[in-house]
Specification:
By secondary structure, the chain is of the alpha/beta class. It has one domain: Thiolase/Chalcone synthase (Peroxisomal Thiolase, Chain A, domain 1). Helix content is 34%, strand content 18%. It has 15 helices and 11 strands. Strand 10 and strand 11 form a beta hairpin. GO terms for molecular function: acyltransferase activity, transferring groups other than amino-acyl groups.
Length: 382
Amino acid sequence: MSTRVAIAGAAESDLGVTGRSILGLQAQAIGRALEDAGLTLADVDGLATAGVSRFSATQVADYLGLRPSWTDSTFAGGSAFEMYVARAAQAIEAGQCSTVVISYGSNQRSARSRSLAGVVEAHTPEAQFETPYGPLYPISYYAMAAQRYLHRYGGTREKLAEVAVAARAWALLNPAAYRYGAGPLSVDDVLGAPMVSTPLTTADCCLVTDGGGAVVLTSLDRARDLRRPPVRVLGYGERATNTSMTAVDDLTVTGAVESGRDAFARAGLTPADVDVAQVYDSFTITVVLTLEALGFCGRGEALDWIAGGRIRPGGAFPLDTSGGGLSYCHPGQYGVLLLVEAVRQLRGECGDRQVPGARVALAHGTGGILSTHATVLLGVDR
């Protein structure tokens, strides 16, 4: 059930510490993505975005002088942008719009706006059963999942550290990465970093940076006449599972099981068909749980499966080839940058980190505290 929709343009905004406003970063990313596609704002009649306010799409449209016939500003955390791909593809195929921009921007590092306290409304189960214990949001929740996983399957922090070590190795090949030039990361470096929430150290946690990105979607037929080779939307799936941890029966199983199953079924593909994967790496444990849920390896097998350099440059399974949220960029909601890197890999534009012959890419977003999950499969135009 591959769609007749393609990504025609993809770009980042400035990254790191930018000093720009949120809307400024959004506009920058959108402008660059449209330039990449060979289009202009006059071509845009669909907009999906988050990160500004509850009225993100309205505010971005207003800022850019757009009057889109279709919008989406669903807030689902880091997975929202993979969800937007599905909604945009459906809208284009239904004739609601012809050209959709998916965008995001955040100046959280420059503005010092990141907080570990979280926002919990008084009437929620979290306020009654979780907030009294003072968890760091969202780190403590992911730490609980990591603690449970290591206990259940006999894993070690040394094996978990491989996720961060591999991400740094990829970042050293990406001049846009925040940790580019920082030097390699060792397992001992990860274990010796300051402990934040047991068993996760600062090196197990994503960066806090400014940044953003955008992708442009249109019909496959139209994309074939534009500036860049089109990247086809092959399949997608999503699940929303929980807000609080008190609602989770098993911390080691996520909604990526169902979102991945649906995406592969729609695309007519299997995990064995994926040449390069961009998996949300808010924390090292996020990657481990997601790889298992998507079917790349069995339950409890991920730590051994990634060992031996499998997910590092030159390994058998290229993963988070930009350096990921752990070493490249994490502006609060990272999902749009998963799509940007997937598109660039399929177009063969990644230089030293390019995966040879990549024809099918997976992008998987995770939002909240393992709360929302969305999988997108992309492919070259055959």
